[in-house]
UniProtKB/TrEMBL annotation:
<dbReference type="InterPro" id="IPR012349">
    <property type="entry name" value="Split_barrel_FMN-bd"/>
</dbReference>
<dbReference type="GO" id="GO:0010181">
    <property type="term" value="F:FMN binding"/>
</dbReference>
<dbReference type="InterPro" id="IPR002563">
    <property type="entry name" value="Flavin_Rdtase-like_dom"/>
</dbReference>
<dbReference type="Pfam" id="PF01613">
    <property type="entry name" value="Flavin_Reduct"/>
</dbReference>
<dbReference type="GO" id="GO:0016646">
    <property type="term" value="F:oxidoreductase activity, acting on the CH-NH group of donors, NAD or NADP as acceptor"/>
</dbReference>
<feature type="domain" description="Flavin reductase like">
    <location>
        <begin position="18"/>
        <end position="173"/>
    </location>
</feature>
<protein>
    <submittedName>
        <fullName>Flavin reductase like domain protein</fullName>
    </submittedName>
</protein>
Amino acid sequence: MFYRPEDGHGLPHNPFNAIVTPRPIGWISSRDSEGRDNLAPYSFFNAVAYVPPQVMFASTSVKADRGDTKDSVANIRETGVFCVNIVEYAMRDAMNQTSGPWDREVDEFDHAAIEKAECDTIACARVAGAPANLECKLTQIVTLPGEANFAVFGEVTGIHMRDDCLKDGIFDVLAFNPLARMGYRDYSVVREKFTLKRPGE
């Protein structure tokens, strides 16, 4: 099968995000200028640079009470900071609960009964029990083609790692099993790993 996205795919559901899979989930916490906390998952997310460490996530839809975007991007525009919380398999239901189109006044930490902690380098809340948290300072928001597509880039200014996830000096993902997004309503979980050395190593 071949199709041009501009012509449509003719399938019951869009296959695009099932093709680009699995994708890590950025569970983004942010705070608006009035001090209200927000927490929402984004599967268009990744690390993009080592020095300085940088990450990005993309928001692709609109909420009626946020104009041209959703709470996360609107909050980050106001405050210039956000935190990426790594999602473990054990927190899948809590993560999913925060994905709803809740009103901007709703604190998803409270709504999903998630313990929050204050970040160290930025004025923002983080998921206290997450395997890791990346505190970020906004570097740029890029407007992408499309009606509500924004890519948010941030420099990581502080990193929290849960003690039980550090094994012999290595951050061990099998200690917590990262959750990953696939297509449609499907997810996956990392339960095994293997090592490949690069040519010449």
